[in-house]
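Look at one record.

>
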Amino acid sequence: QVHLVESGGGLVQAGGSLRLSCAASGRFFSMYGMGWFRQAPGKERESVARISWSDGNTDYADSVKGRFTISRNNAENTVYLQMNSLKPEDTAVYYCAARYGNTWPTVYDADYWGQGTQVTVSS
């Protein structure tokens, strides 16, 4: 069992930065692929960034490439999302997800989800 808790969301002006954290409790965190997803009002949940457990391989949505960076600290059971050059269209609830094994979580295939943290970018 893995319990995920996101933090770091808030209100920021366009062009600003935020750093989201996802703290995981439970065993074998290092054996889970981790990901950040987001859902804006009236839209479907979408993948933002993902990181594997074995080699730290990452994957980003085209809309955030060059602006967002995902990283993980297995010793601290935490995954981060550094978000720079934020845009109003980045406004959404951001969720952390975990999927066991050498694979990435997807919107439809994840073992655990956090409760989400709100990110609001004002223009």
